[in-house]
């Protein structure tokens, strides 16, 4: 992989990882569901006027938009809004990898391979360590909401695969439109009109910059750059870079939000990250060994 491609991949995972700090800062002003609604509104408009609708059924776009916008990010924003530390959330949400494997097994009737059992056991052990240390900053509700976000992400991945080979940026933009109205309605029903009005009144230029960062930096730049890299490099080279997202997430949260990193949190991170790395890297190692032999 050329150096400039590696630097671009590093920039994308840095954006995706540090994004959890941006979320936490914006939630100081905006209610979580309203924040999510604004984020997906800006991701849809004006980009939809410049990107043609991908050639996929409307129901596929709607399903992806609801799963990612409503389930994944709606749950994630509610969790980070006082129920779990953002650095820890960046780690736990990566369990979507194992939800995706489980769903693929259920749908395709595949059997879990030995290395996947080991990877799953490591990740579950890490989540168990987190569950054993819930407190005021990391609650059972927060952990459950992030796991729900991971589940929504994993189902969204499967829906996205059903779309086939499409322009992923256009796919994300057009699907975002389906998340906007449900998020606004849920915000009105759950958070209430007074909270929505108060949040908008409190919003500063920094709050709106955070919304824009979510829409343009995290969504549009992230997906466009990642898709560009995957089109020009082997997936086995690019995909493992995503393992750095929790590293940037926990690092940025520790540096910018003073999130503590006690031993138990580092142990949990080590277990989950080792499980993720084993799941991603072991098949590539086996392929290389097979070629050598």
Number of strands: 0
Order of helices and strands: HHHHHHHHHHHHH
Terminal residue distance: 25 Å
Radius of gyration: 19 Å
Oligomeric category: single chain
Q: Helical element count?
A: 13
Which word captures the global form? globular
Structural class, by secondary structure, is: mainly alpha
Helix content class: over 70%
**Strand content range:** under 5%
Overall mean pLDDT stands at 88
Count structural domains: 1
Q: Extract low-pLDDT stretches.
A: none
* Biggest pleated-sheet summary: none
Provide a descriptive summary of the structure in words.
- This protein is mainly α and 293 residues long.
- It has one domain.
- It has 13 helices and no strands.
- The protein has helices spanning 3-26, 32-44, 58-80, 86-92, 96-108, 114-131, 140-162, 168-191, 193-202, 205-232, 235-238, 245-257, 263-292.
- α1 (3-26) packs across α4 and α5 (96-108) crosses α7 (140-162).
- The mean pLDDT is 88.
């Amino acid at each position: 992989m050329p150096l400039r491609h590696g630097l671009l991949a590093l920039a994308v995972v840095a954006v995706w990882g540090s994004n959890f700090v941006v979320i936490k800062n914006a939630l100081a002003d905006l209610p979580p569901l309203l924040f999510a609604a604004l984020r997906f509104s800006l991701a849809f408009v004006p980009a939809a006027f410049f990107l043609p609708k991908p050639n996929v059924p409307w129901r596929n776009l709607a399903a992806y938009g609801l799963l990612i916008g409503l389930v994944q990010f709606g749950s994630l924003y509610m969790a980070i809004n006082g129920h779990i530390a953002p650095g820890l959330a960046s780690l736990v949400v990566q369990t979507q990898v194992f939800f995706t494997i489980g769903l693929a097994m259920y749908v395709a009737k595949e059997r879990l391979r030995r290395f996947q059992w080991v990877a799953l056991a490591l990740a579950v052990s890490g989540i168990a360590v987190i569950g054993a240390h819930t407190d005021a900053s990391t609650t059972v509700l927060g952990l459950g909401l992030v796991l729900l976000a991971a589940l929504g992400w994993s189902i969204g991945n499967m829906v996205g695969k059903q779309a086939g080979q499409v322009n992923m940026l256009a796919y994300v933009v057009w699907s975002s439109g389906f998340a906007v109205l449900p998020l606004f309605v849920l915000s009105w029903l759950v958070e209430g009109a007074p909270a929505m009005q108060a949040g908008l009144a409190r919003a500063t230029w920094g709050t709106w910059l955070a919304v824009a960062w979510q829409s343009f930096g995290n969504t549009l730049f992230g997906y466009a750059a990642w898709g560009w890299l995957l089109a020009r490099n082997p997936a086995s080279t690019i995909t493992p870079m995503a393992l750095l997202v929790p590293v940037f997430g926990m690092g940025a949260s520790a540096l910018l939000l003073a999130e503590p990193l006690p031993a138990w949190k580092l142990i949990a991170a080590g277990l989950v990250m080792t499980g993720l790395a084993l799941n991603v890297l072991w098949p590539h190692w086996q392929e290389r060994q097979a070629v050598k032999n």
